[in-house]
Amino acid sequence: MLGYGALTCVSTVFYRMSFIVCVRMIIWHHYPKSDAIPEHLLRVVNVFKQHGEAIDSSTHKLNSNEVLLILKKGLMDVGFKVEKGKRIEDRIRVPVLFGRNGELEKSFLVDAFQEETGTVLEVEAGRAVTNYQFLKDLFEACMMHNVIYSVIAVRTTYRRRSDFETVITHFDTLYASGRLKLPLKGILVIGY
Predict the structure, then answer these.
(1) Is it the case that residue 18 has pLDDT exceeding 70?
(2) Which of 100, 109, 156, 191 is the most exposed place for a label (fewest CB within 10 A)?
């Protein structure tokens, strides 16, 4: 196991002095493991990779809104609607229940949504594992109308532990046990 996230180390020579430079990489895991990751989810991974240095949780203590702001343009470029702010009119609501005359009765707020593919994205920071926010994100994605893919981004490093490793351990268990059938085609967990 790689611990707090994957590292790429490059040896370089600078004015007769040798240096080893290590750069933390974006890591990801797609479920179910028996399916190849869909192309549209790879594009999401690439957005994270493009901004990997700026959001690296081993060197930056960004909250989830700050990370989302850095990723916003890239996510929009690959077809996501991204929340603009915390005011109610700036947030993205995904329908859950419809009432009389088809009026929206219940919805959940998400960080980003790609309607064409039915993909929701949630970026979590400190409370991803501490408050089990990743499980709430999974539950909400399962309840949302026309949502078939869930992307959950968590820190690889938080308080000297790997939230990414904790989350994938939970999802490995969920899929291996086979006791809970999810209405989703896929879940992508990204560690930043």
Answers:
(1) no
(2) 100
Residues 162 and 156: beta-carbon distance below 8 Å: yes
d(CA 82, CA 144): 17
If pLDDT is split at 50, 70 and 90, which confidence band does 25 have? confident
Q: Report pLDDT digits (tens) over 134-176.
A: 999 999 999 999 999 999 999 998 887 899 999 999 999 999 9
Alpha-carbon 147 to chain mean position: 15
Q: Name every residue whose Cβ is closer than 8 Å to that of residue 87 and which is 6 or more positions away in sequence.
A: none
12 pLDDT more than 60: no
CB 109 within 8 A of CB 68: no
Token pair listed for 18? 């040798």
Res 87: pLDDT: 87
Is the previous residue joined to 95 through a cis bond, with omega within 30 degrees of 0?
Answer: no
pTM above the 0.70 mark?
yes
DSSP symbols for 144-174: STT--EEEEEE-S-BTTB-HHHHHHHHHHHH
What structural domains does the chain harbor?
26-191 (3.40.91)
